[in-house]
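Title: Prediction job returns without error message
Component: structure pipeline
Severity: low
Priority: P3
Assignee: unassigned

Description:
Job completed but the reporter wants confirmation the result is attached to the right record. Sequence as submitted:
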Amino acid sequence: MAEDAVVAESRATTYTTLAEPEFRHELEVKRSRFITVLHRTGDEDQARSSLAGLRKEFYDARHHCSAFVLGPDRSVQRSNDDGEPSGTAGAPMLEALLKRETAPGVADLSDVTAVVVRYFGGILLGAGGLVRAYSESVSAALDRAGMVHRRRLRVCAVAVPHAVAGRLENDLRAAGYVMADTSYEAQNTVLRLALPDDPAALDAAVERLAALSAGRAALVPGGSEWVDVPIG
């Protein structure tokens, strides 16, 4: 089975991906079932593992067509027709991923693997019908799946006593700050703020934290990381 590869040339500090590890949606076209499974995948090994797992789960299906887009710059792009006529399944699925607008005029979806499992219903769809069915299956799933932005941000830490951590985190969120993962020490909770990587943003966060904590909490700057940021 042939696999098509395309390499994109771009650089990005933000992109959009799935909010959850998996999303499923089913479409029926002339008695054929098209089950689309979207997985959030960070590399090719995860993408191929996703496909392998679905082949095992839907072992009795005729086709397990796939496409995936990976990386902040969408540099890894693959598609596979899995026995459907060449160009009628994987390519339109990949196109649906690549052309998905996550904001008006913005197509930046990545780290997504789409697998469409087809159970043949006995009616031939023809090449044009297959292209439409596979494209619409992925598009319909994307219409319903939750999304988040992934942004390269500077993550800073602040350690505070457990008793005040919840209130401080709520205050920081209310002030519009993006919170990364929280960790716990014996005496303190370590809150992590994700900030734009510029001195002005860091200075503003230091001042806001001092005001919210009456000067008792100190912000410790860290390195940059990819962080999920809610849309809207």
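Comment from assignee: result matches the submitted record. Helices lie at 44-57, 90-98, 126-144, 162-174, 199-212.
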